[in-house]
Specification:
The complex is a heterodimer of chains A (300) and B (266). Chain A is of the alpha/beta class. Chain A is built from eleven helices and 14 strands. The chains are: A alpha/beta (300), B mainly alpha (266).
Chain lengths: 300, 266
Amino acid sequence: MTAPAVETHGLSKTYQGKTRALIGLDLCVERGEVFGYLGPNGAGKSTTIRLLLDLIHPTSGRVSVLGLDSRRQGVEARRRIGYLPGELRLNDRMTADEQLDSLTRLRGSESPLRAELCERFSLELDRPIRHLSKGNRQKVGLVQAFMHRPELVVLDEPSAGLDPLLQTEVRSLLRETAADGRTVFLSSHSLDEVQHAADRVGIIRSGHLIDVDTVDHLRERALRHVTIVFAGPVDATRFRGLDGVRVDSVEDSVVRLSAPEPAMDAIVKAAAMHEIVDLVSQPADLEEIFLEMYQEGDAG
Amino acid sequence: MPAELIRRGLLDHRRALVGWCLGIAGYTLMTSSIFPSFKGSPDLTKLVERYPDALKALFGISGGGISTGAGYTDAELFSLMLPLIVLVLAIGSGARTFAGEEDAGRLELLLAYPLRRRSAVLAKGAAVAAEVVLVCVVGFCALAVWSAVFGMGLSMGRLAAAMASLVALGLLYGWLALALGAAVPSKVLALGVPAAFAAAAYLVGGLHTLAGWLDPFRVFSPFWLVGQSPLQNGVDGRGILVVLAAAAVALGAGALLVERRDLQTP
């Protein structure tokens, strides 16, 4: 059996003895999946990623990447990883081509996908990096992360500075990588960025992993926004009693509710006691579920 | 592979290196070209020889005074300016290559590549060494030519040994700067500590004969260890080895300590 792409046990990181950036993280990312790692800025996403790469050392706990201990077998692990830092700093005087040459030599292995990726992102190869826009620099970062066909690609906020067209391109690159049996670990502060690319999503907040679920599941748990227009004024209390249903507003004959999918039947049945003019049900954006979870986290 | 870091370290500094080479050739030319006027003027040399002992000690004016090519070159170049040039180059390069690169956030990507941090430190150490050696070789060649042109009659063997002592000093302080930057994420420390150590060691090396209480400390001054007024007195081979060993210990310590710490966030 192949080891998971990423596995952490009780992983904690405390900076300078006081800032607790990560607390007891237990996480398992399987091979061949695109895993979205979501959280607001400062939640501990980059800390987790830098622990995977052994750029920083854990205060306690263990990390294994592709079955290798990230501390003791870090060089071997990093040989099989591609990484795009959240704050990408390249050598400004080099051209993109020289930079990629240099990184290929540094890795000491071939870059079989380089030409294809450069073409795909229409990268400007012969201009010094200091003359490139933020988006174009980010492309250089993406190419170097993927060019050696790594088993695990770790991307820290990859869409920063990319236009929507390129974001779509990156998304399909992630899907292809997973289809190839390789793994993508993708951090983001925006659920929208990962919901089309990721299979599973882990949500982290203030150093705690709040939840791990499939994107499909998250959608199911998502509240629908239901707007019912009645022929005349109604008493909204009948809706308040329904399981999982929240009455957002009652204006004369218009009732607005939030409810999960399983509650829809009860809502429609309750509403049917009156004459209905219109009924609209909209799925909530994942962003809202995400915010909801943060608030739950706050309450707890 | 770490070799790429050596190559890149040198390429990144290539413009600055050309400047250093032109600088050392130009400065030695300027100084050497004045020598014929000292050679032909005993009054001027007598005047210089009446300088207070402290000044003479500090500026390496000894024995044959400055009317000979060796005495003149020792006093004008090897007592202060050449060590200063080599040290500024070495400390700047050592501090920039690790602490500076980390500060600029460029180590984040490099150290996520499959190489050990200690190999990165050693490779960068090799690049710093190559820079120091290059500038000293250029200095040697330049002085060899100027000596012939201006009739200074320098011994090539002693000149080579004098340059070797500068290489040793450069490696010590350059590698110390690199190692400090590897051990602690602070460019200020990486620049400041070696510079302060070098200044203190220079003063101890220059003044220990005058200030008696400094005398016991002279063995801690790398400037004293490698030998002073090298063109007149030769260098101390064992001292050079001691300084090189200390340089290697500093670099080795940096290579070990870098593994223990967290890389700073860009």
